[in-house]
Design goal:
Oligomer: single chain
Strand order of the largest sheet: 8-7-6-9-10-11-12
Bound molecules: NADPH dihydro-nicotinamide-adenine-dinucleotide phosphate, the ligand O=CC(=O)O
Distance between the termini: 16 Å
Structural class: alpha/beta
Number of helices: 12
Radius of gyration: 21 Å
Length: 325
């Protein structure tokens, strides 16, 4: 059986695939393989391990009819047409849970960095602008006792709440479609409407998947309901916020600051105005990028491939394997 990997993955995952006797090939160029070329290559493969922003749409899936599984090395699967995969009998796996702590760390880091203008200060030192200690300059916001509003309180949102309650005794409110009883019990989190969350939060942190419902959720209207002293954090997907509206909200003082690990498009252009705003911190989609987490993700993604090709249920399935033994 042959497995294609769309970008190099940690050795822990590669070893599992090799030990299972699978014939593997890895795209190692430092640019993403063009889609049509990838589709052509995949004619020869039984499984693809997707580590990177590959658009797995209906055309892709219909063109790769030998595929038994698309194994994502990510928890998000907004890049996959899951309906088409289900209809075509192609399993889809992902890697939830193991990356929650690392991604919440990135959200927490961005919250702090935005609140103290840390990335901007760093750039100012490099520019030679550290002149004197000024009691009225470079002032940030404190987080102690403030209200954290989480949109999409699932696994990563839970870890973010844990950090904010533990470090700053923040009050947690959240907006989900259903109740998160575990978070209500652990943090006294209170479920509120989307508008209530916008109006009451000092920090709004987005942890929902990108879906047709959440696409562009943070637009001019949403930002206009937030406090002028509030900070917007997005480590979920860039498509959840409208970038032009976010820039306008920051420029007009509608909101105070922002921290982004995800943008739309990615990569963000180097001349994006957000990169020159003192109260904004941007990271290049590195939420899960720690050694331990990436090892764990590679292991799950490899296991999902092995399980699917062995006609067994996946460890984590977005679309279950229909070829079960
Ligand atoms: N920056 C990075 O590197 C990373 C980014 N991510 C992103 O984070 C996302 C979340 O991951 P994870 O926490 O593991 O996922 P979970 O499924 O555990 O949590 C997502 C939460 O979003 C809620 N939700 C879904 N739809 C809506 C909606 N329309 N309105 C409000 N809430 C909604 C769900 O609750 P309910 O169903 O009750 O609404 C759920 O609690 C991923 O989908 C991915 O896009 C993930 C990993 C790394
Ligand atoms: O963005 C990363 C993911 O795991 O989803």
């Amino acid at each position: 059986m042959k497995v294609y990997i769309t970008r190099n993955i940690p050795e822990a995952g590669l070893k599992l695939l090799k030990d299972a006797g699978l014939d593997i090939a890895v795209w190692t160029e430092n640019y993403h393989q063009p889609e049509e070329e990838l589709i052509k290559v995949l004619q020869q493969y039984d499984a693809v391990l997707v580590s990177g922003p590959v658009k797995v749409d209906r055309h892709f899936l219909e063109s790769c009819r030998h595929l038994k599984i698309v194994s994502l090395m990510s928890v998000g699967y907004d890049n996959v047409d899951t309906e088409a995969a289900r209809a075509l009998g192609i399993a889809v796996g992902n890697t939830p849970g193991v990356l929650s702590g690392a991604t919440a760390d990135a959200a927490f880091l961005l919250m702090l960095a935005a609140s103290r203008k840390a990335f901007h200060m760093h750039k100012e030192i490099i520019r030679g602008n550290w002149n004197f200690w000024d009691p009225t300059a470079n002032l940030g916001l404190e987080l102690g006792g403030r209200t954290l509003g989480i949109v999409g309180l699932g696994k990563i949102g839970f870890e973010m709440a844990k950090r904010c309650v533990g470090a700053y005794d923040m009050k947690v409110i959240y907006h989900n479609r259903g109740k998160n009883e575990e978070a209500e019990k652990a943090f006294g989190a209170v479920r509120v409407s989307f508008d209530e969350l916008l109006e009451q939060s000092d920090v709004v942190s987005v942890h929902t998947a990108l879906t047709p419902e959440t696409k562009g959720l943070f637009n001019k209207n949403a930002f206009s309901k937030m406090k002028p002293s509030s900070i917007f954090i997005n480590t979920a997907r860039g498509g959840v916020h409208n970038e032009a509206d976010l820039i306008a909200a920051l420029e007009s003082g509608t909101i105070w600051g922002a921290g982004l690990d995800v943008t739309n498009p990615e990569p963000m252009a180097a001349d994006n105005p957000l990169l020159n705003m003192p109260n904004v911190a941007v990271l290049p989609h590195i939420g899960s990028a720690t050694v331990d987490t990436r090892n764990a993700m590679a292991v799950i993604a490899a296991k999902n491939v092995i399980l699917a090709l062995g006609k067994r249920p996946l460890e984590h399935a977005v679309v279950e394997n229909i070829h079960l033994a």
